[in-house]
Amino acid sequence: MSLQKKIILSFLGGAVIIAMLSAFLYINFLEIKKETSFLELTDTVRSKSLQLRRHEKNYFLYAPEQATGESAAIYQYIGELDDILGNVKGPAADRTAYLRDLIHEYRSRFRTIEGLVNSVSSESKLLEASSPAYAKVSRLLAANFLDKPLEDVRYLREQFSFRHDHKLILGLTMLDVEISGLRKTGENILAASKELDRTAREKVDNFIHISRIAILLVFPLFLIVGFGTILYIVSGVVKRLRLITGVIEKTGKGGYVHLTEDAGEWGNDEVGQLITKFNYMEDQLEQREKELLRTKKLAAIGTLASGVAHELNNPLNNIYTSAQRLLKKMDPQSLDKKSTDSGNMDTQTPEFIKKGLNDIFGQTLRVKSIVGDLLEFAKGREPHHRAVALLDLVSGVFNRLKDSAGVAGVELKINMQPPEIVMYADPEQLEQVFINLFTNAADAMSGTGTLTFKAVEENDFIRMEVADTGPGMSDETLDKLFEPFYTTKDKGTGLGLAIVFNIIQKHHGEIRVATEKGKGSTFFISLPKALQG
């Protein structure tokens, strides 16, 4: 993940926390607003309930004919409470349902009481007309109809011997029951309004408490997540940059150090990519330094080889010519047949002389071949570029080698993309490259196996691979593979791959090798498709 994305995500993380806190506080604010509005409503209900109880008390204190004003006030407050509670909607309506039922019950009881008062008053007037004794106390009794109806009942039964089923006795008894019920309902209304007020205040306090806790918890979390993430990112970047600085100093002093662990530890951000590129640069610098040292070494050895080869060439020619003349004198046919078999020589010549001359002649030929390789290696002529059909060149080289015993059991597989590739190079030098590579591959496979040649055209370069199915090479062999005179063969000169390296260099290309024990080796060659300016 890139540094930009990490920084953006860290800020997004903090922003999400703040957004969540803001949303939570906004929802809490709405709830507080609702509860505050409901609290205002409950306060109004409680106030009107108190007024209702006050007028109720006054109503029962006055005589029925004097309580008309209080009755109107009671109906007014009952209506106002009905209107207030009827306008409550949503979940709050459920909380006020009990209070609404109490108001309806209160209205119903009050109407019943008014009806009973009228009935009792009518009956009292009838008794006034029929009983002079009752008429004397009727006004006193009427004054107690709403306040103490049971005392009137007791008085009437004691003084006038009214039976319990007398209309006035029954009316006053029912009136007392309804008055008690009304007062109880009024108390319940007041208690319910107080409870609504209390719960609304508790909810407001609870929402405020929750908001305070959310701010105290979430804001520090925001600081920890936001600044903690930034500090983590910055510290990681600074740490890795310091590591790179230290490694650059070591590189400047000639050391090549990699930062593979740190590159993967912090992720693939810009600094991680910088470390990866730096490691690649270290590999390239190390490889270039090795190639430069190898080139200097080859140049020095080439100069030495050239001088040695020229110094050896004349004595070798003399030895070769002298051995040739002696062999002709002993057996003229031996040289015509190009054979050094001692059975073809003069039988009068001692056997050890024949054997010695044959050995001198054969070893001289071998040394001349080595000197020829030295001269070829030392000359290092510049390539003469011409158009080369790669498929024809590779096939032709392998077909010529196929006749030799060492390559007879080797199968060549060619894979080219596109099938026909034309490049500009020195065909003779390229033939020499493939002759050496194919011969070495056949030797590695002991003359039996599969030789694979691949070529791919990529932009302005031709990428080639020569792979065998041999046993692979050791690390020591791999390090010294292109050095002159290094060989693992009994009769090799160790100059073949050094010549290959020189040819590839002069063509402005690259060559490297990869090997795996038990699975063979692969030479990778990269050459420009066209002539380099």
Features:
Heat Shock Protein 90, alpha+beta, 533 residues, Helix Hairpins, 5-stranded mixed sheet, rod-shaped, 15 helices
What do you see in this structure?
The chain has 533 residues and is an alpha+beta fold. The chain has three domains: 186 residues, no CATH class; 99 residues, Helix Hairpins; 150 residues, 2-Layer Sandwich (Heat Shock Protein 90). The chain is 70% helix and 10% strand. The protein has a five-stranded mixed sheet with strand order 2-4-5-7-6. The protein has a two-stranded antiparallel ribbon with strand order 1-3. Helix 1 runs antiparallel to helix 2 and helix 9 runs antiparallel to helix 11. It is rod-shaped, with a radius of gyration of 60 Å. The two termini are 42 Å apart.
List the helices and strands and how they pair.
Layout: H1 3-61, H2 68-86, H3 91-95, H4 97-130, H5 132-143, H6 149-159, H7 167-252, H8 260-265, H9 270-330, H10 332-336, H11 351-379, E1 386-389, H12 390-402, E2 409-417, E3 422-425, H13 427-444, E4 448-458, E5 461-467, H14 475-479, H15 496-506, E6 510-516, E7 520-528
Parallel strand pairs: 2-4
Antiparallel strand pairs: 1-3, 4-5, 5-7, 6-7
The proportion of strand residues reads: 5-15%
Strand order of the largest sheet: 2-4-5-7-6
Which sheet architecture does the biggest sheet show? 5 strands, mixed
**Secondary-structure element sequence?**
HHHHHHHHHHHEHEEHEEHHEE
Task: Tell me the number of helical segments per DSSP (H or I, 4 or more residues long).
Answer: 15
- Gyration radius, to the nearest Å? 60 Å
What gap, in angstroms, lies between the N and C termini? 42 Å
Helix content: over 70%
Number of strands: 7
Shape assignment: rod-shaped
Q: Give the low-pLDDT segments.
A: 334-347
Average residue pLDDT: 79
Number of separate domains: 3
**Strand pairing plus helix content: what structural class?**
alpha+beta
